[in-house]
Design brief:
Number of domains: 2
Number of helices: 12
CATH architecture of the largest domain: Roll
Number of strands: 15
Helix content: 10-25%
CATH class of the largest domain: Alpha Beta
Distance between the termini: 32 Å
Radius of gyration: 22 Å
Order of helices and strands: HHEHHEEEEEEHHEHHEEHHEEEEHEH
CATH topology of the largest domain: Thiol Ester Dehydrase, Chain A
């Protein structure tokens, strides 16, 4: 075996926490961090690895569909899918979260981040068997004052995540919105503390179960462009009440950037000691992703109970559209912002309406304003506009969009992240 690096285990964060000197509870955003982040903008790169999957296998697509409660046979039934225009199982567009979720390389160790939404564009379907390579491009950072930071500064990081298939085609891209805020500031702000967990009685549960039973899946019945009119409403869709079970099901299908086992985890911590979050209430430190499982970790950053993943909620929005549009349509653009934390026990209701109908470069489009609210009538996702391409009785099957030429030119310049770091470019 090659010579191994001699590690100083006394500096490992697990050792630090168990000793007299505890791991610092929170990291702070510094001017050096800001400058480093801004110096990396607009340089395309291939990340060191993928988030979870490299391929859209039939099993992986089914696991992902299970993780969002999607029963559409197009994503799970091979015999059904063979009879569609695709000839095989395809994946919902949000499956690409399992390839790469947020773009790595923001350079804010020890600072808590929330994925707060994104703007998707898809250009081709995701077929079973497709293989993907992600490309990241850090874009711009906007500094604002925010209640979640107790009136202090929050940093909104905008980055493009792109997905190249095995033919080198840009299948899709998402402009991610990520909020960075000092963990200490967010924990002390307490905007989302002391919110009581909702209780549901017998009548509530009957309404919830009926809503799931009546969820419409358009499927093989085409939704023709000519039959859709402005002000048409989309039938409502519910999710929840949110539970840890939902989060585990999501992780089984979508993967995790932080949950590693045994040696893999401890080696990662040695290399990235600021990745851990110290939770005084439990007197322990572990990965910050546990805010989605344990209430104490959520309370440490100012939220009363564990809450959902942002990509999970965006995938529900994608499901809302694919249920409505049918197999022969194509979700081109999807925009969503995440507002209220979707905490354990919360119920989320999606609704929408058609606001525009038009033809663009041969594509028969409808723009849909969609939103989601919780049982307290808070905006879980405020109204945002997305675009679906529908088949037409007059103009024929859908026409797929193409990625912008300037985006293709940027992607052609992408290089491995390690090489860019070695050369001092990133």
């Amino acid at each position: 075996m090659a010579n191994k690096e001699k590690k100083d285990w006394s500096k490992h964060p697990r050792v630090t926490v168990s000793g007299e000197k505890k791991l610092p509870a929170h990291g702070n955003i510094t001017k050096e961090m800001e400058d480093r982040r801004n110096s990396r903008s607009h340089i395309p790169f291939f990340p060191r690895g993928v988030y979870f999957n490299t391929q859209a296998s039939k099993d992986a697509i089914r696991h992902f569909a299970d993780g969002v409660g999607d029963t559409n046979p197009l994503f799970r039934d091979e015999e059904y899918a063979k009879k569609t225009k695709y000839g095989s199982i395809i994946a919902p567009g949000s499956y690409l979260y399992t390839i790469q979720w947020v773009v790595p390389g923001g350079g804010m160790p020890g600072v808590h981040a929330w994925y707060s939404g994104g703007d998707w564009e898809w250009y081709r379907p995701v077929f079973a068997g497709d293989e993907f390579k992600p490309v990241g491009i850090l874009r711009d950072v906007v500094v604002k004052e925010g209640r979640m930071a107790g009136g202090g500064q929050i940093y909104i990081d905008y980055d493009d995540g792109l997905y190249l298939n095995q033919r080198g085609e840009i299948t899709a891209k998402e402009l991610h919105h990520t909020v960075w805020v000092d963990r200490g500031s967010s924990g002390s702000a307490g905007k989302y503390r002391k919110i009581e967990k909702p209780a549901y009685n017998k009548e509530d549960w009957i309404r919830i179960l009926e809503s799931f039973e009546n969820e419409e899946i358009r499927g093989s019945n085409p939704r023709w462009w000519e039959d859709v009119q402005v002000d048409d409403k989309l039938g409502s869709m519910i999710k929840g009440p949110m539970s840890v079970r939902d989060e585990i099901a999501w992780l089984m299908g979508a993967g995790s950037p932080f949950f590693r086992a045994d040696k893999l985890e401890y080696d990662y911590e040695y290399r990235h000691p600021k990745a851990l979050e110290y939770v005084e209430e439990m007197d322990e430190a572990d990965v910050p992703e546990l805010v989605h499982i344990f209430d104490a970790y959520a309370r440490a950053i100012g939220v009363e109970r564990a809450y959902d993943y942002g990509s999970q909620r965006m995938s529900w929005l994608c499901l809302f559209f694919t249920n409505w549009m049918g197999d022969d349509a194509f979700l081109w653009k999807m925009s969503g912002d995440l507002r209220a934390f979707n905490q354990m026990g919360d119920l989320t209701t999606f609704e929408g309406k058609v606001i525009k109908k038009y033809i663009e470069d041969g594509k028969c489009c409808v723009d849909i304003e969609a939103w989601a609210k919780n049982q307290r009538d808070d905006w879980s996702m405020p109204p945002r506009v997305s675009t679906i391409i529908l088949p037409s009785k007059e103009h024929g099957p859908i026409v797929y969009p193409n990625p912008p030429q300037n985006l293709a030119e940027e992607v052609s310049k992408a290089r491995p992240l390690n090489d860019l770091i070695k050369e001092g470019i990133l």
